[in-house]
C-alpha cells in the first residue's frame, strides 16, 4: 500500500500547500537539500531566491526551476554568505522575504586532533554565524509584517554526535538553541521559527562519495547504497539514504499555513538514526 518513494535528485511532485506567490530565500540551494527545498517550494508556486557562491550555478538552477515551474519567478541570489559585504549586498537587493531557509552548511569527517582553531572558526562562521546574520536581518521584518517562516537545516548530529566530526556537530547543536531562542521572539505572531534535522541524505556530494567507495564494484547504485548502509549506518532504520525531495516536502509543509503550530520545534527526519523517543 505504501510505495517506496524513490525520487531521483531534483525530481518533485506537487502538493497544495497554499504558498502561491510567496518569496523564499533558500541558502545553499544550487545543490543537494537546499536545491530540493527550493524545487518543492517552487512547485507550490513560491518565487525562490537561489543562493550559492557560484553565480553560474545559481543561474543554471534558476533556469531549471523556471523551466519546471514557469508560473513562478525564481531569481539568482549568488553570494558567499560568510562574507559580510556580499551578505549586505544581498540584503539590499532582496530586503523582504516571506520564507528564509537556512540550509547552507559545510561538513566533513575529520579527526578531532586535526581540527585546528581556524577550522573550528570556519565551521562557526559558515554554519552558525551566517545563518544568524540572515535571521538578524529578516526576522525583525517578518515580525513587523506579522507573517513569515524561518527554517534551519541542522542534522541528526545535533542531538547524536557520531564523534566523526565534532567541529560540525557542535555547530548543528548551536542551531537548535538559536532556533528555539528566536522562536521565543515570535510569541503571539504569525511568524514561526523551526529546525529540521535530516539524517544521511543523498545529495550529489554524498552520491559521489558512495560511487567512489564502490568504484571497483560493477553493481547498480541501489546495491552500493544497500551495502554502504548495512556496513556503515546499521543504526538507520530506513536503510537507504533520505532523498533530498523528502526533506524538501517536509520543509514546504512547515512553511505552509498548515504548519503554523510548529513553533520552536526540532523536527527529525533522520530515517530512524536517533534511537531515543525525544
Ligand atoms: N547530505 C546529508 O547527508 C546531510 C545530513 C544532515 C544535514 N545536512 C545539512 O543539510 C545542509 C545541506 O547539505 P547538502 O548535503 O545538501 O550540501 P551540499 O550538497 O554540499 O550543498 C551545499 C550548498 O551550499 C552552498 N554553499 C556552500 N558554502 C557556501 C557559502 N559560504 N555561501 C553560500 N553558499 C554556500 C553550495 O554552493 P557553492 O559551493 O556554489 O557555494 C551548495 O549550494 C547542510 O547544512 C548540511 O549540514 C546534510
From TrEMBL:
InterPro entries xref list: NAD(P)-bd_dom_sf, Sc_DH/Rdtase_CS, SDR, SDR_fam
PROSITE patterns the record matches: ADH_SHORT
Pfam families reported in the protein's UniProt record: adh_short
SUPFAM superfamilies: NAD(P)-binding Rossmann-fold domains
Gene3D superfamilies: NAD(P)-binding Rossmann-like Domain
GO terms (BP aspect): monocarboxylic acid metabolic process
Similarity-based family: Belongs to the short-chain dehydrogenases/reductases (SDR) family.
Name recorded for this polypeptide: 3-oxoacyl-[acyl-carrier protein] reductase
Amino acid at each position: 500500500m505504501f510505495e517506496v518513494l524513490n525520487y531521483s535528485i531534483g525530481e518533485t511532485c506537487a502538493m497544495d500547500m497554499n504558498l502561491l506567490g510567496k518569496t523564499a530565500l533558500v541558502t545553499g540551494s544550487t545543490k543537494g537539500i537546499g536545491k530540493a527545498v527550493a524545487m518543492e517550494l517552487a512547485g507550490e508556486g513560491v518565487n525562490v531566491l537561489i543562493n550559492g557562491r557560484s553565480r553560474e550555478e545559481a543561474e543554471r538552477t534558476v533556469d531549471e526551476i523556471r523551466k519546471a515551474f514557469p508560473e513562478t519567478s525564481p531569481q539568482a541570489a549568488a553570494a558567499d554568505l560568510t562574507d559580510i559585504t556580499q551578505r549586505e549586498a544581498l540584503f539590499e537587493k532582496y530586503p523582504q522575504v516571506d520564507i528564509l531557509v537556512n540550509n547552507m552548511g559545510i561538513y566533513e569527517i575529520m579527526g578531532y586532533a586535526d581540527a585546528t582553531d581556524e577550522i573550528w572558526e570556519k565551521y562557526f562562521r559558515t554554519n552558525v554565524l551566517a545563518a544568524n546574520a540572515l535571521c538578524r536581518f529578516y526576522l525583525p521584518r517578518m515580525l513587523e509584517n506579522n507573517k513569515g517562516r524561518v527554517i534551519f537545516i541542522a542534522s541528526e548530529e545535533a542531538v547524536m554526535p557520531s564523534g566523526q566530526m565534532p567541529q560540525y556537530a557542535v555547530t548543528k547543536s548551536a542551531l537548535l538553541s538559536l532556533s528555539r531562542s528566536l522562536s521565543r521572539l515570535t510569541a503571539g505572531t504569525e511568524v514561526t521559527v523551526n529546525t529540521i534535522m535530516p539524517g544521511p541524505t543523498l545529495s550529489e556530494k554524498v552520491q559521489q562519495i558512495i560511487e567512489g567507495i564502490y568504484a571497483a564494484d560493477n553493481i547498480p547504485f541501489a546495491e552500493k547504497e544497500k551495502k554502504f548502509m548495512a556496513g556503515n549506518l546499521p543504526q538507520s532504520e530506513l536503510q537507504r539514504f533520505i532523498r533530498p525531495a523528502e526533506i524538501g516536502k517536509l520543509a514546504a509543509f512547515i512553511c505552509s499555513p498548515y504548519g503554523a503550530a510548529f513553533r520552536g520545534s526540532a523536527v527529525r527526519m533522520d530515517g530512524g538514526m536517533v534511537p531515543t523517543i525525544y
